[in-house]
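The record is passed on directly below:
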Amino acid sequence: MLPLLNTAVAFRGYNVTNLGRTAELLTVAAYHDILRRHLDEASEICRSATGQPVNLLERVTRGEEADLDHYAEAVALVYAVELAQLEIAREVRGLDLRQSRFFFGYSLGELTAVAAAGMYDSRAVLEIPLSLAEDCVALTADATMGIIFSRAEMIVRREVERLCEVVTTEGRGTIAVSSWLAPNSLLVIGQHETLRRFGELAPTHLSAPVHIRPQETRWPPLHTPIMWQRQIVDRAAVQMERVTEAASEPTPPVFSLVTGGYAYSAGLGRRTLRSWVDHPQNLWSAVSHTLSSGIETVVHVGPEPNLIPATFARLSENVSRHTGKGTWANFSRNAVRGAARYPWLANLLPERAFLLRAPEVKQVILEDWLLDNS
């Protein structure tokens, strides 16, 4: 059984692949009914929101990923599977992840986290991204995501934000940060040729030398001001006014990647949800908080979680490679100095020496754990 006292629970977001091992979970007799119920409920909500026929159970059994034209189905699928995995763990395996230290989630995962923590009705929360899905997809037509990273130095946040403003004011489209992944890496989404223009101006506007890797896959421009162009933020805010908020605090607390803190206390949740639509995700804040809080295990919820586990894995690899082998207690002063080979990491030490705990934190993929213990 997983210990929960020093455990954090991470929820994944939308990706180009979203099925994971869900079909395998369906074949386990003890899991089947719970998973099917959540898929059927999410299918009905998705049908109501989109006016299109939706059968998530059939999609899973066929092994058919939902492409961008079926973006709403992908959102409903991930959301349903995350809630189902939590219920299976609790009702079948006796593991109640609500007893963990805190929840956090990336993008769509934050919505699942606040619903799972009892802050809002789960149906009402899912209806929000589904009602906006069509316009989100439409905005992908001329938008390109780019991964921006530096192999040596930290990237100055304000410099990036200012450069995005400079390019946007040229009037050829909007470009903005969508996610801060780490001190040396982030995601931006830009319309038309703005990502190329960002690259042209970067050497004279950014103090750190950066590499820009455009992505061929189209992504909905969530968490950027591009969402303003179809009044999506305001429409979402109006919809959120009708969502009943729990009188009590979420259980466990939910750490928000929008604010970089616990922003879902009673009376503040709707404001954070509204900001969730167009504010960048700060994944690094959650990683830092996890390590500084003494968390020993991170449980990753959802079908085939990738981004959050990969972020922890990269940090762990960087730390391990340049601090030598051994446990936290055995790190030597000379070994810590080895982190200087990664200047972005060395610049955060010793002020943030808790980052050195990264190799010691256990990462558990919940769907794998459920199948291993079936």
About this structure: Residues 147 and 187 are 5 Å apart (CA to CA). The mean pLDDT is 91.
